[in-house]
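Pasting as-is:
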Amino acid sequence: MPEQSLPPTIFHMLEKSLGKKIRVILDSSYGFEGSLAAVTREPPGIWLSDAEAVILRATIAQPIPQVASREERSEIFVHLNSVQRIEILHTSSRR
């Protein structure tokens, strides 16, 4: 009988992104950006280093929220129960 593998959990997916720059959205207009430093299971959350608090704004002309302002933070812990969305930020190559 072939062995079934379990589908990856959010913890597995986050652990694959350790060290990458991410944006964590807490509500439609507020979130954090930083490098993913650690993932914890008890309590369920993530640690961000070199973090910034970001304010997001959307308009009728541009409905996708864009970063409107930033505020420096050092390291923060974000509980996963308060997270709406997590985005992995890719650096663009300049030509």
